[in-house]
Design a protein that fits this description.
This protein has helices at about 5-25, 30-50. The chain is mainly α and about 60 residues long. It starts with a helix and ends in a 14-residue tail after the last helix. About 0% of the residues are buried.
Length: about 60
């Protein structure tokens, strides 16, 4: 994945999160949880994209 596509994805995720935070009325606690989940997801995705977190795709749940 190229650097340009990584930046585009980060900008799109940021704008979507900003739109949700500003235009969808919800409790502040729910917004905080949503923000934390999105940030953790983006960080994990970036680590995997840069090859620093290669073992997450080999995790199998169950047998």
């Amino acid at each position: 994945m190229s650097l340009v596509s990584l930046i585009v994805v980060l900008v799109v995720v940021g704008v979507l999160l900003w739109l949700v935070n500003n235009y969808i009325p919800m409790d502040g606690k729910i917004k905080n949880i949503l923000n934390i989940v999105v940030v953790i997801g983006v960080v994990l995705w970036l680590l995997q994209a840069f090859g620093l977190l290669s073992g997450i795709s080999s995790i199998h749940v169950g047998r």
